[in-house]
Amino acid sequence: MMGSSAKPQVLLVEDHAALVRLTTAMLSRDFEVVACTSGLAALHAFASDPATFAAAVLDWQLPDLSGPDLARHCWLVRPDLPVVLISGDPRLLDTLPVEGPIVGLAKPFLPQELLESLRHVRGLP
User: Fold this and answer.
1) Residue 78, in any domain of the structure
2) Is the overall model pTM greater than 0.90, yes or no?
3) pLDDT tens per residue across span 26-46
4) CA distance 6 to 122
5) How many domains does the chain have?
6) Does residue 50 fall inside a structural domain?
């Protein structure tokens, strides 16, 4: 799944195709984006080579697996995987899981807000 790009790889999970395109565009200058539209597809992509992912951007509400549950599954393999959990319902972000490195970001967000969230959760300045 790792491309020839020298950019860090990020797993993007969002079930709305328009938001996948928009968020991929926001991230693609700084990251190689592996986009999935379901939690199960994301688990498969992640399991294929967990070490290649620098971070994950997960939608909270997915039809098959919630973002927090997906994060927990990933953390079983990579407890250090930085996660940005995005949600259209900011009240959900008050209940972030505490098992791993995670920050919440309410939709809609600006590209700079997403990139800042990724830098923060990855421990970068």
Assistant:
1) yes
2) yes
3) 999 999 999 999 999 999 999
4) 17
5) 1
6) yes
